[in-house]
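ok so I'm stuck.
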Amino acid sequence: MLIDRTMPLGTALTVTHASERGPRTHNADAYATGRRTFVVADGVGDSEAAGEAAHAAAQAAALLTDPVAAILAARDALQVHSGDAVIVVAVARPHGGFDVAWAGDARAYASAGEDLVQLTTDHTVAEYFRERGVVPQPRLEHVVTNTVRHATPENIGRAATRASRLLLASDGVHGPLGHGGIEAIMAGHASAERLVRAALYAGGTDNATALVVS
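replied:
not stuck anymore, here's the structure
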């Protein structure tokens, strides 16, 4: 079931979020919002346990306003769950911009006008080889090297942006659309629902979840 809501955050920010199961048996993606914190989590695998892990991780992370601490809180929340998840967390700064942290291959993008910047670097085997000048096999794009359960202060990714518009997305969105597809949508009147529907229309075979803050 697709869910899309528009929620004003004070006088400065608005967030839309949407999630779709796609052709999978379970929707193992989750999203959550706090006062200034925004989260997308993607459960590892197509199972009820994966969905429960993603939901627990997202809800725990949304309670904190430091993105690294939020992921560590998500890790602690998974101690009573059997599943695992990847996650991306963004916290809005009081005077503009966002601080971002992640574990795995859920991504954050910053958008200013027609320009789109990927803030995160995937924690995957493919990216590991790519950084070392080796062209990876396509299947390695989906093999993650970090997850919520394995997150530590040392291996959590960190980024920051002054941009006023942010996208958090599971790989079910950024995989089918690619950078160009996301950039084209974000340059217009972007919404999470439009991104999710476009990803599935483009042939996405995974759960698709997006959260847009502007």
